């Protein structure tokens, strides 16, 4: 095999087959959602370029595939996009390719994908907001297969994970609303099986306690990080006899759903209801009014996770734990002091 063949990448196959990079990744991973004719076209392009033989040769020569597996719950938000941006930037510097799976938060899919990728298809795994990592992390650890969890608490002090100061972010946001004069503050959670969602709720509750504001169970709505939850939760709050003057959503897309609900009721943001989010996705500064939110360093989380994984691949015996990156309150136009009632 020539040196030229050894440099063939997924991007070359995608160009040869006239498909996207993601489609080639799905064919490699035997994704059942790829059309038969598309799969055939990609496989023929691989054959013409010698891509399969190239991959085997690289693996046999250095014990590496030069692929990194990435599992994400979905691709529908700027949150995931910013994390992937950081991961891709770091891996591109190292000349590595991504193999992407979307789990749609289905536990069985998540475990099956991990098992498939860990059979030698990739050199390591990055998992964004994994749902049930305890189901397979023990096996990965036992096999010394490198992995890093992103925006997750990890499963123990030695579990490699990258996250943010979610509790502090929840506290800071709630304190900001309290200092503006709000006492009735609605809170919409994310998936409550995720540590980040639990920590944001805990930060909200801690701020209420600090300022001696009684917690009202009617002002907490359990969501799933999707925009319709923001709309539905806000509608529920606005139906209360004593509705909140501010609503804090556990992520920005739900906060945008809150804004839609407020407008649907003929009310205004922030004059009638202040709205606050979490993440600071790119769209947060583009909506009107621009969204006040807690900034997670999403792109940097992706970069740091990729760096951590590459270190683990190079030094399998290295011990790493959880890294927490700082959150920051970003004040824009969607919050103001409550109007007197």
UniProtKB/TrEMBL annotation:
Ranges where the HTH lacI-type domain occurs: 8-62
Lineage of the species this protein comes from: Bacteria, Bacillati, Chloroflexota, Anaerolineae, Anaerolineales
Matches recorded under InterPro entries: HTH_LacI, LacI/GalR-like_sensor, Lambda_DNA-bd_dom_sf, Peripla_BP_I
Coiled-coil annotated spans: none
Sample GO molecular function, one term: DNA-binding transcription factor activity
Keyword set includes Magnesium: no
Keywords, comma-separated and alphabetical: DNA-binding, Transcription, Transcription regulation
Key word DNA-binding present: yes
PROSITE patterns, per the entry: HTH_LACI_1, HTH_LACI_2
Name of protein: LacI family transcriptional regulator
């Amino acid at each position: 095999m020539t040196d030229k063949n050894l440099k063939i990448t997924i991007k070359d196959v995608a160009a040869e087959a006239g498909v996207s990079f993601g489609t080639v990744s799905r064919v490699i991973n035997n994704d059942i959602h790829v059309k038969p004719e598309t799969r055939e076209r990609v496989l023929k392009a691989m054959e013409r370029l010698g891509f399969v033989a190239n991959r085997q040769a690289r693996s046999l020569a250095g014990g590496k595939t030069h692929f990194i597996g990435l599992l994400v719950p979905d691709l529908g938000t700027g949150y995931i996009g910013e994390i992937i941006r950081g991961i891709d930037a770091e891996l591109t510097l190292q000349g590595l390719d991504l193999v992407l799976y979307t789990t749609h938060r289905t536990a069985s899919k998540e475990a099956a994908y991990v098992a498939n990728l860990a059979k030698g298809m990739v050199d390591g795994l990055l998992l964004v907001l994994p749902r049930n990592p305890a189901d397979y992390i023990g096996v990965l650890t036992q096999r010394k297969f490198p992995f890093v969890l992103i925006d997750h608490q990890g499963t123990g002090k030695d579990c490699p994970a990258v996250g943010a100061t979610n509790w502090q972010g929840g506290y800071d946001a709630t304190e900001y609303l309290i200092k503006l004069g709000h006492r009735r503050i609605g809170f919409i959670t994310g998936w409550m099986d995720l540590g980040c969602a639990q920590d944001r709720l805990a930060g909200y509750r801690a701020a209420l306690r600090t300022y001696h504001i009684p917690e009202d169970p009617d002002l907490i709505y359990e969501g799933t990080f999707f925009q319709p939850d923001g709309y539905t939760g806000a509608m529920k709050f606005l139906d209360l006899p004593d509705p909140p003057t501010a609503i804090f959503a556990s992520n920005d897309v739900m906060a945008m759903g809150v804004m839609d609900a407020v407008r649907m009721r003929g009310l205004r943001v922030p004059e009638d209801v202040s709205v606050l989010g979490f993440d600071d996705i790119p769209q947060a500064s583009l909506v009107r009014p621009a969204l006040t939110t807690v900034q997670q360093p999403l792109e940097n989380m992706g970069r740091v996770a990729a760096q951590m994984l590459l270190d683990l691949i190079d030094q399998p015996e290295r011990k790493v734990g959880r890294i927490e990156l700082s959150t920051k309150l970003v004040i824009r136009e969607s919050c103001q002091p409550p109007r007197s009632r």
